[in-house]
């Protein structure tokens, strides 16, 4: 049975709400547990996983780019906390670039069918109305990749619907997305540590 567009949007909204709730609960549980402390259970688990730990994290990060269940880029923060600033950033960037490329080709293959499932009709008409408008659409992509208020993952799909060449799209991804991700992740990590210190210390 084919799901209607509104049904798909409803499923995505419900899944996102569940993701937010689980994230809040998870943050509270983690803040009260010693499982994630240095030398404790989680670090030992990563050691047992060995080579596969970064690989698994990158797969999770890619899935978050395609279908963001965990809100506010918290998987980026998790990468920082688990693997450290340098390796966490490298793994985040690998997942980010790979996921962005996949979203581009999803947009090119399925077009509005997949994009409409994630945004409402007003947003869809607004963004798609700028397709193939040359530099105006390029500027939209660049601003969307820099500013966290825009649905940048969806912009990757919309870019796939345009006449933009994949090489040019990837140039924008590599130039703008990693930098904005690092700044946003650093700020979010600092905020989480501050909240933890104030309320859970």
Describe the structure.
The longest helix is centred in the C-terminal third of the chain and has 35 residues, at 166-200. The termini are far apart. The protein is built from ten helices and no strands. The protein has two domains: 1-32; 34-200, no CATH class. The chain has 201 residues and is mainly α. It has helices at residues 5-32, 41-49, 52-66, 74-83, 85-110, 112-115, 121-128, 135-146, 152-161, 166-200. Helix content is 78%, strand content 0%.
Task: Give a quick set of tags describing it.
single chain; 201 residues; 78% helix
Distance between the termini: 51 Å
* Broad structural category: mainly alpha
How large, in whole angstroms, is the Cα Rg?
18 Å
Helix content: over 70%
Flag low-confidence runs: none
Strand content: under 5%
The total count of strands amounts to 0
How do the SSEs run, as a string of H and E?
HHHHHHHHHH
What is the overall number of helices?
10
Overall, the morphology is: globular
Biggest sheet character:
none
Mean pLDDT: 78
* Number of domain modules: 2
